[in-house]
Amino acid sequence: MRKFKFFLNFEKEANWLNQMAEEGFEFVGKSMGYHFRPAKPEKTDIKIDYRTFKNKADFIDYCTLFEDCGWKYIAGTKSSGTLYFKKVRADADEDIFSDADSKAGRYKRLSQMYMALSMCYLPIFAALITTGAIDAAGLLSPKRLYYTPGLWNMAGADFWGAFLFETPFALFRAATWALFPVIIILFLFFSYKTEQHYKKLMK
Length: 203
Hints:
Layout: E1 2-3, H1 10-22, E2 25-30, E3 34-38, E4 46-50, H2 56-68, E5 71-75, E6 82-87, H3 100-130, H4 156-202
Antiparallel strand pairs: 1-3, 2-3, 4-6, 5-6
């Protein structure tokens, strides 16, 4: 079974995964959504970290360290960022984080990732504008989205026929041109929200 959800709060995400386990759905991975398989309902304790690794050896050592402490690695890769662990030993620590700094640090790393993504899209958007691939003025003036010569000087049936014919193409242009600024704004917003979680935990 696959479910699609989006979280900016690791605690809320972990609580949801634990709730799914209590309902009889075991979390087994995350790729284009959360993947679950039917299982016996159980009370689980899942924790989430966020970090990336330069090589596979460091990633394996990291996961092994947690498993030695009673936390089984469930999902995530060395470059995916989000890593999931499940408590499998009764004598394991109650959390995978030893202090508030390390617990808050994952939000800082996630915030920096979203900021870096927004900065990657920004020069691409600027290049598309400067080369004329995107008409920035068209995002503010809908008339510029219509390319039919003399459209706005037409009247009656001629106008409505040409207008209705080209409107789907104009809407497509608007959606395409607005895609980059929307993505940039969303990533900046995600960066801000995760930074706020970081600051809250560091108080």
